[in-house]
Amino acid sequence: MTKMKIGFRTLKTAVGVSISILLAQLLQLEYYSAAGILTLLCIQKSRKQSTQAVVSRLFACLSGLLFSSLLFAIIGYHPYSFLVYLLLFIPFCVRFRMQEGIASSSVIVMHVYMHRGIEPAFFLNEFLVIVIGLGVALLVNWYMPSIDKELNRRKEEVDRLISVILKEMAAYLKEGYTLWDGKELLQLGDELQQAKRLAVLDAENNLLRKTNSYESYFDTKRQQYEILERMLPYISRISVKMDQGIRIGDFILEVSSLKPGSSTAHLRETLRAIREYHKLLPLPETRHEFENRASLYAVANELERFIHTM
Q1: Residues 6+ apart with CB under 8 A from 310
Q2: Rounded-to-10 torsion of CA 263, 266, 267, 268
Q3: What is the pLDDT of residue 142?
Q4: Span(s) in the chain for CATH 1.20.120.940
């Protein structure tokens, strides 16, 4: 039997809706339950999304309140009045990028239709319902639990997978064979996708922070992942154990053990020395040898790009 879990967002939604209805009821507002509906529609995954949702719905609700009041007063309070209203109001919302607020504003428009009149007291009532519903949603959604622990765990896993992949590539070049099935490369792609999603969420929850170190970190790791993807076919084409391959294998092993943030100056120098060594070798005598060397040359180029990202 599947265990039912109550997520943090679900908890915030339930608490926010209850608070909105309670406040509106304490103020003895008409249609007080609508405040809870507005809160329900505004709880989002991040502070940024929540702020955007509240602003969009605020303008949509106020626009809908004024527009429907004027329209219904002119054409009357009839079911077909909604047809005219929606045909005009939906394009208006789309034009000003307030389409998220169409459903929320419709709640307020229903009140206009049921009230069948335009008085200052009614407008004040609806304004307070809107402010309470959207305001509580914004306040409740402003608290977001830190996801730093999860992001750091993902960082460690990404670094581990990259290190494993590099070591397996080095083993193939040094030994001429490997039993590696490449699953870590697939895992790395999935891990980076999930990590990037969390990094974006973290950025949207820290609106005052100009830069997001997690986002830039995982962007860099994405570049490294793409380089590793390009390297793998070149390495797999090398069919014999070669002295040049052993040297590059040793170099890749050194790269795999480098800690994040460490200096890469010695790696650049080592790679330059390997390239100089390759230049001094006699020309390949067979097509097979030529193709193997060409693959090693391509691997060296990709390694140079990899080092630039470190």
Answers
A1: 224, 258, 260, 262, 264, 267
A2: 100
A3: 85
A4: 148-308
Burial per residue of 30-62, b for 16 or more beta-carbon CB atoms within 10 angstroms, e otherwise: ebbebbbbbbbbbbbebbbbbbbbbebbbbbbb
What's the CA angle centered on 177, arms 171 and 180, to 5 degrees? Answer: 70
> What class, spelled out in words, does domain 148-308 have in CATH?
mainly alpha
Q: Which two tokens stand for residue 74?
A: 């002119």
Two structure tokens written together for 199: 């990094």
Alpha helices in 76-182 (DSSP H): 79-95, 102-115, 120-142, 148-175
Three-state secondary structure call for residue 146: coil
Q: Is the pLDDT of residue 230 over 70?
A: yes
pLDDT attached to residue 6: 73
Is the CB of residue 50 less than 8 Å from the CB of residue 141?
A: yes
CB 52 within 8 A of CB 64: no
What tens digit of pLDDT does each residue of 29-51 get? 999 999 999 999 888 888 888 88
Identity of the highest mean pLDDT range in 109-123, 230-244, 284-298: 109-123
Q: In this structure, what token pair is assigned to residue 239?
A: 């069919």
Q: Give the contacts of 96 (CB within 8 A, at least 6 positions apart).
A: 59
